Amino acid sequence: MLDAQIRRNYVGDSEMLKKLRSTDFDEVAQHDGRELRTLAHTNYRNNISSSRNTPEKGAKKQGSGETARSATTAGKVEYDPYDQVRNIPLLPIKCICGSMVAFASLVFLFPESVSTRSKIFALLATAAAMGSYLYVFVPPIPQDKTYHNFADSRCLCCNVPNTFDVLSNVPFVLLGMLSLALQLTGALALDTADATTRYAWAFLWISIAAVGFGSGYYHWAPDNATLVWDRLPMTLGFTALTALVIDEHLGAGLELLPLMVAGGIGSVVYWARTDDLRPYAFVQAFPLVALPFILALFPPKYDSRVYYIYALGWYMIAKIAEAKDREIFAATGGVVSGHTLKHLAAAGALSMLTRMLVIRDLSAYAAITKNHNHIG
């Protein structure tokens, strides 16, 4: 078993594989400065672990005289962001997304034949299908312990550990406080007669500022305990934004905001108690699937909603930077990591919302509302 595990680490390295086939396991000592026995034991143990906290699957020799990449950086096992999803069946989620695309195409081709009620039903069916997929096809997803091993762990200033990952959260705090101040001073285009909407936006700004504090606290000393305080404010922001978009396009949603917030908090608490990320994954994934669907199929109440699309684009850039944490750190010569850029891109995504409300024109909506009230 361990012989096979060692050989798997050198797929593509024919010279080393030949040597391993002709050599007894106990006779193999070192190659390129690494203990093969230790590496094999580590990989084997992690592959059969229920938590599936798998380190890098080994390294390939790049060429003559060039050492293979180590699975550790400063003594830490590298985090593989794709490891926990490799064995998850993707056909059901592809079917769900394909069904949404087919329905959206039907709406675009025959807009008059699809009622608003049918669109809402399709949205609810998507939510139910995604939830069922997570609990029927996906086994419990534990938090990978190597998640906390970020590429940039330098202490560069004022004894702040992980300096860039900590300080890159400052934009969240500034953006949240600035947006709340703009709302309180009347600089944002919000319907003054709609107190519920104003409270929901204020809740979102406070959540964004809390993301900065929570994420900074986590990155100061990354572990599962501090990660709770990173994820809690993020769920508040996700649920608030989703409720606001639903309200602006369907005319309802803010009534469900307390329930959605409770569900978001519950997903983090559930993970903290059971080490199962599936509910939290739903809280993060559903808005990414539902918001483009809503923006494409439902008429807007206000203008400038293209900024929602800009925000989604920046958020996707943030997720890519997060997944390429070490690659970006290496590509920049150790100047900046992908996770640091993830924070900056996510803050840029949220700034699109503030910009949208600064330039939004409420006059058209006010005229429509006035005419509707007059006719009524």
Structural notes for this entry:
- The chain is built from 15 helices and four strands.
- It is an all-alpha fold and 376 residues long.
- It has three domains: 2-77, no CATH class; 90-139; 159-375, Rhopdopsin 7-helix transmembrane proteins (Up-down Bundle).
- It has a two-stranded antiparallel sheet. The protein has a two-stranded antiparallel sheet with strand order 3-4.
- Strand 3 and strand 4 (76-77) form a beta hairpin.
- Helix 7 runs antiparallel to helix 8 (195-220) and helix 12 (306-323) runs antiparallel to helix 14 (338-359).
- It is globular.
- The N and C termini lie far apart (78 Å).
Which tags fit this structure?
376 residues; mainly alpha; 64% helix; disordered C terminus
